[in-house]
Every structure is written in structure tokens, then in C-alpha cells.
Here is the input.
Amino acid sequence: MYVTGECPAGTITTCNTAYGYASCDQECQNTMMPGAMINRGGYVRSTSCGPYFDCDAGFYTSYSPSGIVSCQACVSNRPSDSIWVTSGLSFNDETSCLWECVKQRSRWNGTTGKCMILNRPTPTNQPGFYSLPSISSCGIGWTSERVNAITQDDCVPCPRLIPGAQWVMNNFICEWECTTGKRIGGVCSQEIEEMAFPWQSAGHFKIGIQIKGHIITSQSQRPKPPTNISITTRMYGRYNRYSIQINQTNVIVPGPICSYSVASGYIYVVFCNHSFIGYINMRDKTQQRFGILIGNTTRGWHDGFRTEALFQSELYISGEMDSNILFVIDRWNCILREVTISTPGGYLTRVDTIYGNTERFLITNTPKCYGTGSLKYPRQLWPMYGSKHLCFVDDDGMYTLNGQTRRVTIMFWKTDILSYISNVDDINGCIVPDTSSVILSLSNGSGIELVASSMPCIDDYTSLSGEKYR
Here is the structure.
């Protein structure tokens, strides 16, 4: 097979320099490596697909003294009737895989520390249905998890509808629509044109920005975590294990953490280079204190409940202490998403896409990162201290997300500030010290102050702070 792009997974790419084409004509030698999932073709003229495999659930990536990279079985005192649900979250650490009870036939019992066997047949249902005495739907406003519902008693009520919403008819997976306004994530948002600056005065609209230049940000001006919990992942002990410091206490974690958000009794975490969001139950001292909040080890894009949702492998999260909402930057899918948390570890935790172009997924199963309505590889996500907004960057510049309306607007283009910073990735936070400016905190300890230029709204128009009705 001659190709102009990438070869299929599990094949080796060879070059014919005389005719100028590549050929995917050989299978990888290590396709059958125990515990490995080949996810791409090999390098051109490579004899191995070694660089392009992931370890399967229950296996961790091992590097031997002789330089061989392979997948080795994880080791744990996990209880019987449990299964591995992730690969190793840390390189060369045999204890870094996560497990869960086999949900089709058992439940976790925190008192005994075991998976409690359920005396029932194995379910075979699809989401929103149960299988006995015959395949039937749970009904509008109710749902069920795949292969987890035998009778109608196994159906669960959907999360409560928000004001201005109604259930989609003949849908049994809790889909809803707005009766007024447009659904964006978990809210019904009215048709408004929103200013890019959250500090915009009421009754005014933005006509531009001014950049005052570099300032030295004081400690009071720099972004602060919303709690006294400080998470810095670091190596622990003689193995490749990691710990975080919480209230001056070290907590051993399965792997390095690249993004986190603190909630009441829980810490939601993104383990580096993995395609799910996890949680740490701070009240639980058993081996079940770590778990998957939403997503799994399969990479891709899919909105839905906990076990149906798919993400790519570089995520950034942010939320409020007393909220059940997490906002998520899914970088390699080029989208912004929202997670509504039911119960950590529970099926009804759900993700929805807020912003980004998802039409191409339905055709080619690949993201669209360029063009109208697209984000160019977004990354980072910070609460905009002093406002209800969040900010993030992509290849074009910096954006704000209104945490109440879910509206995304451009704050400035990258070209606007290139004379002050060389790269938007140097930004590590945003602060709104008052109602007139925003300070962008930089990784070197300095900052850039932005000031909005505005004018009063014309006759018959009004505006909220940062918003203007059409």
C-alpha cells in the first residue's frame, strides 16, 4: 500500500527513494508484545514499532538496564473480583495501575475492604435499558449504565433538570434541550454578545485594549490557589513513585500530576499524559482513595457519562471549591469541555463540549484545530482571580471563558503582545485587581498590565459587566 501520510497502526513504513513514495508493507515485529497496544505505525525504515505503543490496563512501562522498553504486569494487593482499569501511571512503577471492582457482578465494600459479590446474572444491557424479563427502556428521565442493569430497579434517575430545560423525547441517556436560549455545556445561555474583558464596566462596550508593559507583580497580585492545599508532585523513595504535599503531609500518589482542582473532601487530578480525570478521596484511607472520575484509557472524543466519555492525553482542569463543575481543556482534541460531577466514581458524572469544532469527528474521527469556531491546540486553564471568568491560551492568543454563561471570547491576539513576551506559554495566570485592568502573570515573576478602552453603549442598548445585549 502506497501512502502519503501516516501508516496504519502495527505496520512499518519503508521508503522507496528511487520513486519517492512510502510503503506500509510490513507488520511490526513487536505487535504481539505482552500487555502492549500498538497505536501507530513505526518510523520510516524502522524495524520496530517500539516508540509507538502504549501499555494495556494492568501493565506499566518498564525500562531495563539493557535499554529495552517493554510492558510488565502491575503488582498490587487488589481484592478478588476486581479488574485493572488503567495502565501504569508512572514510568517503571509496578504499583501505579488503578483497579475497580467488576461492576457487572460486584460492588466495593469500604467496611470490609473487599469487592462484595452480587448474587445475580451477568447484565447484557445497553445504556438506558435493562435486560429482564425482556429488553426495555428505563424511561424518560431515567437511565442505566452499559452491562449493569438487569431489572428496572437497576435504573437510576437522571440528574435534575436545570430551569428552562426539558428531556429529549425517546432518549434514555439523560439528554436534554433548552426551551429558551442555547444549550452550552450544562446551561441554557441567552443570545448575547460578550465582551472579551470581564472587568468591562456596565453600560460600556470595548473598542480596544492598551498594554502598559511589564510590571513586577507583588505577592498579593500573583495567582493564589483557592485553598491551603499545595500540590507539587515529586519523586518518593527509591522507586519511581510520587507524592503530593497536603497540609504539610505527604500523600503517595500513583503518578505525576499535571493539573488539579480542589473540592470539598476531594482533589480532582490529571495524571500526566493520560486520557482521563482522576480523583483522590481525602476522607478515605483505604486502597480505594484513588479512582477515575471520568474517561478511560482509550483516547478519542466522546461526550457522555463516566465510562462512555473519551478524552485525549493532555488535559487541564479548573473548578470552584463548592461547585460540582469542572472545566476542561482537551488540548489535542482542540476543544473546551465541562464535567458535571454527580458522585466521584459514580456513573452519572458527565462531560459535554462547550467550545470547539466537533463536526469533523463525526466524519473522520479526528479533531479540527483550524478554521471558524476552532481552537488551535488550547492549553493551560486558570481561574481569573477577581472575576467569575477563566482564561486559557492557544496558538493564536488568550481567551476568556465566562463561568456563568459558558461564553468564550478572545482577550487578545498573540501578535498584540509579542513585543512584551516571546511566547504565550510564558503566561501562568490572570488576575483582575480592580474594575479597570487585567494583569497577566508571567513565569519569570513579572507581569503585563492590560487596560480596556471603552465607550458608553448607544441609545436603546445596555450591558452587564463584560456583556452587551444585541
Observations:
- The first strand starts at residue 2 and ends at 3.
